[in-house]
Amino acid sequence: MAPGNACLGMGLMEEKLWETFPLKPTEWCRHIDDIWGIWPHGKDAFLSWKSNNQKLFPGELEFTAAFSNTSLPFLDLSLTLSNDVIHTKLFTKSLCTDPMYVNYSSFHPRNVLDNIAYSQALRFNALCSENSDKEKCFLDLEKNLVSRGYPSKIVHEKISKADGHSRAHILKKASIKKSNRTKFKAPVVVTRNPHHPPFRDIFQKHFHILQLSTIMRKEIKAPPKVVFRTPPNLRKLLVHSTLKADVEPPNAKGLL
């Protein structure tokens, strides 16, 4: 609910914003309540625009904004203007000096742990427009993962694999994935156990059997998606979200 409410509120703010101020930015990119834009009307006009926005919803919405001629952060990106070209690199807040990746001994599927290095390296490859920034991110990633028990060989192989993709290819592939999100895959929910067989490979290998049925071919057009359920643990056994109504409170006199 929170992202939806935030988007509705920001949409209302945008409508009033454009109605009450004559000048507008040439670029306006918003993700929920984070906004990045290009303002071509000068700093004084920007400050007037900012002051106007703060008066739109007094006591309800606080509008904060920063202005720079050279560099600004947006989400996990740092955007820098140099020679009329916008360069990008990874942005991290000052408090986030040591990313807390899950420990390699954690009770997660091994393929999930092994691919953390690959997915993060792909992310850095997409975010960084300069090779020097990308290589620095790779070195920091390898250092952080190895310090948490990840095998150095696996980490190095995954980073090298991600580095083998061009930035343009990664960004293009990401846009294609977004357009295909509506494709439904029937979920198969399984309680996580390290001794389970490779369900995903089994479904891929034998999916053609389901397609032999006219009904199944119509209803299930893609191999099922394996979803792991967290197995029972000590916390779930001891802690409950509700209290039993028939349990009487302890006698205060008996406790003294």
Structural notes for this entry:
- The protein is α+β, with helices and mostly antiparallel strands.
- 46% of the residues lie in helices and 14% in strands.
- It has eleven helices and seven strands.
- It has a three-stranded antiparallel beta sheet with strand order 3-4-5.
- Strand 4 (77-82) and strand 5 (85-90) form a beta hairpin.
- Helix 4 (116-127) packs parallel to helix 6, helix 4 crosses helix 7 and helix 5 packs antiparallel against helix 6.
- The longest helix is centred in the N-terminal third of the chain and has 19 residues, at 2-20.
- The relative contact order is 0.06.
Notable features of this structure?
256 residues, alpha+beta, 3-stranded antiparallel beta sheet, two-stranded antiparallel sheet, 11 helices, 7 strands, extended, HTH_animal, Helix-turn-helix domain-containing protein
